[in-house]
Amino acid sequence: MTRRRILTVTALAVIGVATGGMVDWPAKLIWNATASAPVGFYTVEPADRIDVPELVAIMRPEPLAAFMVERGYIARGVPLLKRVLGLPGQRVCRTGRTITVNGIEMGEALERDSLGRDLPVWQGCRVIGDGQLFLMNWEVRDSLDGRYFGPIPAASVIGVVCGRGRNPTLRLWPTIFSGKIDVFPGDRRSRLISSMTSVAPA
Length: 202
Hints:
GO molecular function, one term: serine-type endopeptidase activity
Radius of gyration: 16 Å
Helix content: 10-25%
């Protein structure tokens, strides 16, 4: 995460949105200025279930929140956008710097941040417990996520940003950003999802 991103991220905000007659679910508007996802406004809705590889908004649990504030990565109380890569009962491993989920390589961790400070390290394999999720933005090399902190409580999720089979839960305002969120490259996505089930957030 660059110094510019560290400073800019404090501008992220969550705003209540009046839904009017357009939609029938409560929505929040999130401004994302981090590297976790393309810069822009996102709408978030409550989740009745969570699937791989949905994009979710989370509030960081302690002691992770305190660590990120102390390092200056992000202000306290600011949500993050992360991809769900592991559900309860799945096996996530870190071997050296390589992260695998169900034996499928998903990316690598960095040893240091952009200021040269050591990043947290865990090693070995863990079975994701009930009430936990493994979150990792595999397409963002310097994302601070499960590759450094392992699984986190599912209760940290405040809403689904990219759902399926519902009213659109992801809206990128084109005046802010004209790109799109990447999804899994075909085969890797299908192999990972084939052994997973959805989970209801705590």
